[in-house]
Amino acid sequence: MTAPPDDCLARNEWICGAYLSSRREILWDAALQHLQLTALAVLTALALAVPLALAARRWRWAAGPVLGLTTILYTIPSLAMFSLLLPVYGLSAALVVTGLVLYSLTLLVRNILAGLRAVPEETRQAARGMGYGPLRLLLAVELPLALPAAMAGLRIATVSAVSLVTVGAIVGYGGLGNLIYSGMNTYFKAQVLTASVLCVVIAVAADLLLLGAQRLLTPWTRRGSES
Amino acid sequence: MKTLSDTWSWLTTATHWSGPDGIWNRLGEHLFLTVVCLLISCLIALPVALVLGHLGKGGALAVNISNIGRAVPTFAVLVLLLLTPVGTYGQWSTIIALVLFAVPPLLTNAYVGMREVDRDVVRAARGMGMTGRQMLWSVELPLALPLILTGVRIAAVQLVATATLAALAGGGGLGRIITAGFNLASTPQVVAGAILVAVFALLVESLFEAGQRMAPSRGREAA
Asked: How confident is the model at residue A56 (pLDDT cuts 50, 70, 90)?
């Protein structure tokens, strides 16, 4: 008869090196799924939010419905959102991505719209006076000036999405949330803690990455007075 | 279409509304969790934010706590607490996780509200010989109230939404109808639960909005 191994896994400790080394692949796969779901959702939301924000600014009557609808979507609890989409998508990753897209839309549309509306009228007039057409005005003047506000929204949306992916565990596509969910059912402390910490690390890393991108894209905000 | 009619018949079945697993009981649990957590969060966050805002210190702290709060998945906190000794005391792990989640928006909004009070007004109050305590209670707090209430509203709506996650960790509330539906592989029940949760969340949101819309006009009349 062999005695059971006396390591941190057997003792079910919170912090466990043996867990990290023996389950490296499970962790890696879960983190990868987490990243894919987040990236897909945020990028899709961004692709939808820009035209929606532009439409809401172009036509005054469109602003109310667009903002109202996205706010209502944002109010619906995540668990309910994923469940409401169940008849449409079944148990799939598309369900989680769609839910996250709907959440990110509010934050992105609001911020892009605020950024566009904050472009000074004088700037617009100056560009027109220099012979800029509507498209060139939008691409070369308005969108760059709206970038800081838009990036602020993108950062919040991304960080929130990383944390919301975990709820996708209810349909089996929750990235690291899957490990938290199964760890809860089996009382596996090391797995729950490791997956939770990885979630936070991913969120913070994504936030810093976007902050860096924002600095590179908007060098003029750093020139002159540091405000 | 089939799912919709099945959902409708699930919702209109009288037995689904009564009993310990019934909708009324789950709604009561949900409301209880939300109200208790909102009260505890306000008791923790508002005094701290008011004092820090009055002193003009800790702005970076408030913002950072808010950002970190967003990055930490509530579901993870819930499960982590459940596996600690706290988890053996009934609802406490759920309540603590929800309070941790609701404190950041309350703290940030109340702090910002206190700081955005017109500095000239504060200086005038000081010139009239008001003490710090008097300024806090009769000048800064009333002027900051709209933003503080916005924070309370955001926290309340997010609490309603997040209290559903308690069901994932075996707690009560409306989310339980959804998780039970998943366990039974009953799509109509899942969708019915989701609709109930969504309607409840939207109802709370519109209640707060209506309340806020009425509040400023009353403030003006009194002034």
From this structure: very high
List B residues 76-105 in contact with A (Cβ-Cβ < 8 A). Answer: 76-77, 79-80, 82-83
- pTM of the entire predicted model: 0.86
Check if the beta carbon of residue B59 is closer than 8 Å to that of residue B98: no
- HSE at residue A71, side-chain half, CA atoms within 13 A, is 14
B83-97 pLDDT, tens digit each: 888 777 778 889 999
Any chain A CB within 8 A of the CB of B162? yes
Distances (CA, A) of B166 to A163, A175, B125: 15, 19, 47
Nearest neighbour of B193 by CB, restricted to A83, A187, A199:
A83
User: Which residues neighbour B11 within 8 Å (Cβ) at sequence distance 6 or greater?
Assistant: B192, B195, B196
Give the pLDDT confidence score for residue A142 in this predicted structure. 92
Q: B108 touching A, CB under 8 A?
A: no
Q: Which residues contact B88 (CB under 8 A, 6 or more apart)?
A: none
